[in-house]
Amino acid sequence: MVRNYASGKLMQVSRRYVKKFGTPEAGEELTGYQDFSQLCKDLDAVINVLWLSGTPSLQIQILLRIASEFTEYVPAFAPEPDATLRLLRKLDHCFASLAIGQDLITMEALPGFEAGLVGA
User: Fold this and answer.
1) Rg, C-alpha atoms of the chain
2) Which PANTHER family does the UniProt entry name for this protein (predicted)?
3) Cβ of 24: how many Cβ atoms within 10 Å?
4) Angle at 14 between CA 8 and CA 16, to 5 degrees
């Protein structure tokens, strides 16, 4: 369910990004992004749902996808430092927390990490 939600929303972000460069067709519901803060708001919503899902295997995979696509989107827009840094701060928090298995702010174990980090 979370995977389908995230995939659908990221596909919608991608479509809106592509439509940014095209001519809008009459009656079309999905419009292109007018500014970078709109795109960041949409990505932020996906990150929020993903973070609340508490599923590390999905979180890591989809957060990496978001980070990768984010780097592709940035050059196409005028600079918007507040929106950009807000989203980067959120991604940083997610990645750093997942790397240590606990939330950096609350220091609580993340779901899926209750027994500690296992691996290499």
Assistant:
1) 16
2) ADR380WP, TFIIH COMPLEX SUBUNIT
3) 10
4) 105
Q: What is the 3-state secondary structure (H, E, C) of 9-56?
A: HHHHHHHHHHHCCCCCCCCCCCCCCCCHHHHHHHHHHHHHHHHHHCCH
How far is the C-alpha of 75 from the C-alpha of 95, rounded, in Å? 23
> pLDDT tens digits for 36-86?
999 999 999 999 999 999 999 899 999 999 999 999 999 999 999 999 999
Count CA atoms closer than 13 A to 94's CA, side-chain side. Answer: 28
